[in-house]
Amino acid sequence: MNPFAFTPATHIDAALAALLDPDTRPIAGGTNLLDLMKEGVMKPSGLVDINHLGLDQVEQRDGGLLLGALARNADTAYHPLVRERYPLLSSAILAGASPQLRNMASNGGNLMQRTRCVYFYDVGTACNKREPGTGCPAVEGLNRQHAILGASPSCIATHPSDMCVALRALDATVHVRSMSGERAIPFADFHRLPGDTPEIDNTLQPGEMITHITVPDADRFIDHSAYIKVRDRLSYAFALVSVAAALDLDADGTICAARIALGGVAHKPWRVEAAEDALIGKRADEAAFELAARTILQGAQGFGHNDFKLPLAHNAIVQALTTATRGTDHARGLDAGTKGEPA
Ligand code: SF4
């Protein structure tokens, strides 16, 4: 690992001043950044410790939810407010990583984590995301985990987060701050597609830091939501495909509103709002869900090893919507997790 300066910050202004240096990175739980530094993928000359800035709230705000950037994933997922009013978000967080990692990983860090593409981590190979202009060996190489939507010839990586899939479905907003002020970024615009600049993961500007995330009221989806994650192992594995689904159903099973977001399939959480709009007024049945899956996956393309993701994603969408229709696990008393349970 390269030498670096370590600066503990006790006030946000001190942290933001340190971040004016483009070679300095904020560190909270460090569950991804330290791996990247140990592998030589990222070589910051400075780290500013942002763990003690008081940004660890999980609370109700303006009828919705406010999540501090430094609240831990586990504390967020098990918070009564999140479990009771945002079960989709709680389920998605608990599907990620391992109990130990969730105890350490911060909410802001979850948004900032980088792809787990094996070439990105192997500094002996080319990779446009790690070294722009060197090429993308995944297009012709090992691409089992890679994107089927929104990819470009420059990069076919996927975003690894589970939490972000639920936040996208729930129309969250990312709040950031720099020495120049504050701004709010709709979740849809926070992560970006690779295009010709895959080295840029998101729309955070130099010197900006995430302070908190807000999620609007989602009570209409409490009783009918599901997070389905298909992966190679039951625990501690990234999604091959994941689906966050939420439905608002009237008394006779007609869909009043729908939310569907996918993980493991693109460089950012994937959502096609036209597919959700088309479900409104339909009965919540397999025919409607099949149509939604076909709409969401229009234009999907495999790269060889990941061709299986096309039918897998289709089936996962139908399964998630079917499960959501039956009722949220938490509403059916099936979600009895504790902080130390196996993931
Ligand atoms: Fe690098 Fe993206 Fe290609 Fe992976 S998919 S090798 S991260 S450019």
Can you characterise this structure?
By secondary structure, the chain is of the alpha+beta class. It has 13 helices and eleven strands. It has helices at residues 12-18, 33-38, 73-77, 80-85, 87-94, 99-104, 107-112, 118-121, 163-169, 187-190, 273-279, 286-296, 309-326; strands at 5-8, 24-27, 46-49, 58-61, 64-68, 173-178, 181-186, 209-215, 225-230, 241-249, 255-263. It has a five-stranded antiparallel sheet. Helix 11 runs antiparallel to helix 12 (286-296) and helix 12 packs across helix 13. The chain is globular and about 60 Å long. The structure holds iron/sulfur cluster (SF4). Residues 115, 117, 119-120, 127-129, 136-138, 155-157, 198 line the site of iron/sulfur cluster.
